[in-house]
Each structure stands twice: as structure tokens, then as C-alpha cells.
Amino acid sequence: MSMYPSPTGNAADPTLTSHGLRQSQELAAHLSSPEFRPKPFRVYSSPFYRCLQTIQPGVEVLKERQKSGAADIEAGACYDVRIENGLGEWFGSTTFFDHPSPATPTTLQPLFPTLLPSENHYKPLLIPSNRGETIAQLHNRIATTLSAIIAEVDAEVHALESSQPPSQKKTSKAILISSHAAPLIAMGRALTGNMPDDSSVEDFHVFTAGLSTFVRRKSSFSSFLSPSSLSNEKEDGLGTSLAQGTQLLRPGTDLGVLGVPNWKNGKGVGGGWDCVVNGDCRFLSTGAERGWHFNGDESFDTGPMDGSSSSTKVPSLATPGIPSTKL
């Protein structure tokens, strides 16, 4: 995290340091290397400035490869970044003040013109409460967002494959997600369905500019957002399953009924996922740095749960043996 003023004018939305920018270049080299496959099919990011900075070099390289006709870029791939507030930073729950909101697409578009072709090309699924969240509510917010993202990309892949000749081979697709330490840990748990009794367990590793990969389990590709799959349970006496004030911007769409899915006890969102790469930093010249994990209730009083640069997660939404979408 940089000590310089943020271009967005938000003190809680810092830029990367020069070291973080170097890490983003090393991440870009890894994403564009022959060893990294499949290449992303869609890209989603938290709206905070440092997350967009982290993936900017990589996305720009992927766009260049796409223009040059590189064979490892999927047909129909789109590298215009989708700004999703539901993937945004975690702020602890409070009842007496509002946490700062991230910049809007209108502010971000001129700052990242190569990532955001227009301020209106994507509508977020969810806006987190400005009064923050408990740890349980954060996990449910991430599970809700991921469920909708998976369904959205599944539908887009289905439409693409339906337009192609039957003889064309179906391939796995991947989604690149750039977010923050706390949401990324929650993503690992929501994808696998493995929520520990103690949230401070160091199960999913997050480091600045690190990369994790998840592969979809064998399952049917029916809608995972059907009403029967939604959870209406209270969260251990900590309030409703989503923090009060959370806004669902697309509650009833062709994605199904947007709500908290039944993701725990090993089920996972979108059919369930397995973690095959956990916090990889081998491509970074200085290795793993600035790791983070939950640390009980004290986290609720610390304000923004920030890492010096964002981490990235690439869950593969492909089911082994069944070519389909990936997260």
C-alpha cells in the first residue's frame, strides 16, 4: 500500500507501492506464459484502486495477445474488466459510522481506460453494507457474489458454444478475480464449501500478488441459484445472513434468484470446487510476502482489512471430463 494520495480521493483506497507495481508486472509475465493455462476467459475485480492496478499489466498483455491471434486465447474471451462491488474489501461491523465506499465506474474509467472501455459495460451484482460485516456475513456475501458470477459466465459459455459448429471441440474456461485478503480467504471457503469452526484457521493462503486456482468438481450444470438452494438461516446469532444494508442490484434476473446459497458442509457454490493451487508466489522474485489471516473478533474494530497489494484468485470453473465454464 502506498503512502501517496489515492487518485480516487479516498483515503481508504490507496495505490500500490513501487514494489507492488513490480509484483504486478511479474504476475503479468506469469499469466501470459505458456505454462499458465487455460488463459482467463472473463476478468472480475474489486472496485478498489489497488486491485485494478494489480491486474492491469496482465490484462493489457492478454489483450495484446488476443489482438495478435495467439492460439492460447479462447474464442469469445473478453478482457474488459467487470467491476464487482460484491468482491470488494471487508470492513468490520459497526453501528455508529459509515465505512468509505470505493470509487464508482465513472471515476475509475478514465484512470484505467485500457481495462474499462466504458463506465456502463457491467452492472454489479451486489453492494456491501456501508456499516461493515461480521466474518460470517462476509463469507455469505462472497458466496452470494460467486454463485451469481458462476451462473453468469456459465450462461455466456453456453451461448457461445451453442453458436459454434457441433464439431468444434469444447474447452475449459477460466475466470480471473482480483480482490483482497479477507474476501479471498472467504472465496476459498465458499468455493470448496469448507468453513472451519474457527475462522482464524490458515486454510487458504493469501499474499500480495499471489495466485490460487480452483477446479470445478464433476456435477450437473443446472442452475445453482434455484430457490431451493438458497439459505435463509440466521448466522450464529450475529444477525441475518447478509449484513443489513447490503444491496442486491440484480435480485431477479435470468441468473435465477440472487440470494445466499447453501454452500457449507463441503457443498460449495456453483457445484463445488477443489483448490489445486493455494497461494502460489513462485513466479514472484521476492516470493510470498505480507500474508494475512483472520484473527477473531479483534478484526471487527480495526477498520479496513487491507493488504499492501491485492491478491488474485483464478478458480477454474471447469468440471473434469465435462468441458464447461470456469471461475
TrEMBL record:
This is Phosphoglycerate mutase family protein. It holds the Pfam family His_Phos_1. Residues 295-327 are annotated as: Disordered. It comes from the Eukaryota.
